[in-house]
Specification:
Blueprint (H helix, E strand, L loop, with lengths): L3 H13 L7 H8 L3 H23 L2 H17 L10 H30 L14 H19 L3 H12 L4 H8 L3 H28 L6
Length: about 210
């Protein structure tokens, strides 16, 4: 992939010429591994792919990041392009599928967090619960806290402010003096890492031999 400055230059050029379609020659060179041809492709189609990404994430900064990821994956998928087909149709179709995969991945991460990281677990245990239920809840709280301790401080803070203290993204951004996009990125990364650490701790517990009571 070209560096960011090269991509931006190519995109600016594409914006000026109205997004002209890539010629057969450029596509052929691109498919044969010509890096400059790929930079031209990125410049010509950046806005089209960005528009697809924006429909899925709804924010300019997040759409920029997703578009970069999509182009990286497109580059790795060039060998799947049937040269008899329309290149733009293929590129937009693949981009849309990649954005759908991204959307599903983010949704799955959120569902994992909702299932494994329940803020209510940090609340005091009710005294009218059965003893085994209280013990199980304490174990889950301990597991959650251990997993949180394993996060990088920046990620831990973002996750706790959002999922434990239930602050809005804007409130967190104001408190941390960060752009809202950065806050969302940290929260998403923190949730993903938290789920991974929880599973890792559970796997470690499963390997510890249990003794009779």
């Amino acid at each position: 992939m070209a560096d960011d400055s090269s991509n931006r230059s190519a995109r600016d050029g594409a914006a000026r010429d109205g997004g002209t379609l890539a010629s057969d020659e450029i596509i052929e060179r691109c498919l044969n591994g010509d890096q400059s041809a790929w930079e031209t492709i990125v410049g010509l189609y950046w806005r089209k792919v960005f528009n697809v990404a924006y429909k899925f994430v709804g924010r300019h900064d997040l759409a920029e990041d997703l578009t970069q990821d999509v182009f990286l994956k497109l580059y790795k998928s060039l060998d799947t392009f049937d040269r008899r087909a329309n290149f733009q149709t293929w590129l937009i179709s693949v981009s849309r599928n990649l954005c759908i995969d991204h959307y599903r991945s983010v949704r799955k991460e959120r569902e994992t967090i909702n299932r494994d990281v329940d803020a209510s677990e940090l609340s005091p245990v009710s005294h009218d619960q059965a003893a085994d239920t209280r013990l199980e809840q304490r174990d889950r709280v301990t597991l959650l806290r251990q997993a949180l301790d394993r996060l990088a401080p920046t990620l831990r803070t973002a996750v706790m402010l959002r999922d434990i203290q239930e602050l809005s993204y804007q409130e967190i951004a104001d408190r941390l003096r960060l752009p809202e996009g950065t806050v969302k990125s940290r929260i998403n990364r923190g949730r993903t890492e938290l789920a991974r650490q929880i599973q890792k701790l559970r796997d470690q517990q499963d390997t510890i031999p249990r003794t009779g009571v």
